[in-house]
Amino acid sequence: MKNIAIVSGGNSGEYEISIGSGKMVEKNLDSDRYNGYLIEIRNKDWFYRDGEGVKHEIDKTDFSLSLIGEKVEFDGIFNAIHGTPGEDGKLQGYFDLLGLPYTSCNVATSALTFNKYFCNRFVNSFGINIARSVSFTYGEHINEEEVIEKLGLPLFVKPAESGSSVGITKVNMDDELDEAISYAFSDSNRIIIEENIIGREIACGVINKGKELIIFPLTEIISKNDFFDYEAKYTHGMADEVTPAEIDTEAEQDIKTLSAFLFRQMDCKGFVRFDFILTENDLYFLEVNTIPGITEASIIPKMAEAFGMSTKDFFTITLDNLFSD
Questions:
Q1: I need a labelling partner for 119 at 20 to 30 A (CA). Which of 129, 150, 157, 290 fits?
Q2: Which of 282, 300, 283 is nearest to 291 (CA)?
Q3: Considering the entire predicted model, what is its pTM?
Q4: In this predicted model, what pLDDT tens digit does every residue of 30-58 receive, in sequence order?
C-alpha cells in the first residue's frame, strides 16, 4: 500500500473548488492499492484533518505527517490544487526538491501554461490561431480608445494568471473597460485584453497512461450567461455541457490531433483539458488547464465516463503513472 497525499485548497479564488476536487479523489481512490490523505493548503497553513475533525499540521521540512505519535511519509502526491501554488509550478518545485513524485505537469510546463500571455505566445509560435490581443503590466499606461479601435467591441479583459474565469469581464460598451481593467489587475500583475471570437467553445480532455495518450470524447460548453464565467461553471443549470460534442468528424479530428500535439509539445503529464473556439471557418486555441476541476460537476470526469472509464479507474491511471517505469 502506498501513501498518497491529496493536496487541495490553494491561495486563489478557486479554493473551494479545489477542496471539492480533493474530496472527489479521496472518495474514489482504489483503497486496495492506496492510502489517501486529504491535505488542505492555504498560505502557510498546511494540515490534515482526521475523522474527528482535528487538524494535524504537515511538517514542511519533508512533507510528512504525525498521527498518534506515528510518522506518515508519502510515496506520491495527487495534486488537486487549481490556481496558485499548485497549478503555477510553485508547489511542483517544492516537491521536486523533496524527491516526491506528483500527478501534475512539471515546474516549467506549469509556469508556462498558467500564464495565459506566455502560453498564447508559445502556442502561436506553431502557427496555431489565437485571438488578437494586447497585454499590460500593472502601472503601465493603457490608452483605452486605441485598445477598442484595435480589437473592437465586445472584448474580454483577463488576468494573465488565474483560473475558473476569476477576474474576467466581457466588455460590451466602451465605458465598461476601465472597471474591467481594475478588476483584472486585482487578480494578476499582468492582464490580457482580447478580441471576442464568435464560435462554439469545445473542450478536449487528454490523459497519459504511461507513454500512451488517451483522448476523451469532446465536450461543447454552452453557457447560459454571456460567456462561460465562474457562475456558469459552478452553478447547476447555468451551462449545458454536451458530451460528445455534436460537431463534424473533420473538426473533431482536428481538435483531438491539435490537443495531442500540444500535450506533447508542452511536455504535459497526467490529465489536461484544452479549450478551443470553433468558428464557421477556423479553430482558435483558447487555453489549457493543467489541473482541471474533478468534482462531480466538472467536465473531465464526464468525458472519462463517456469514454467508458470509471472515475476510480481515471484516478488509478493518474496515480499509476507515478510508479510505472
A1: 150
A2: 300
A3: 0.92
A4: 999 999 999 999 999 999 998 888 999 99
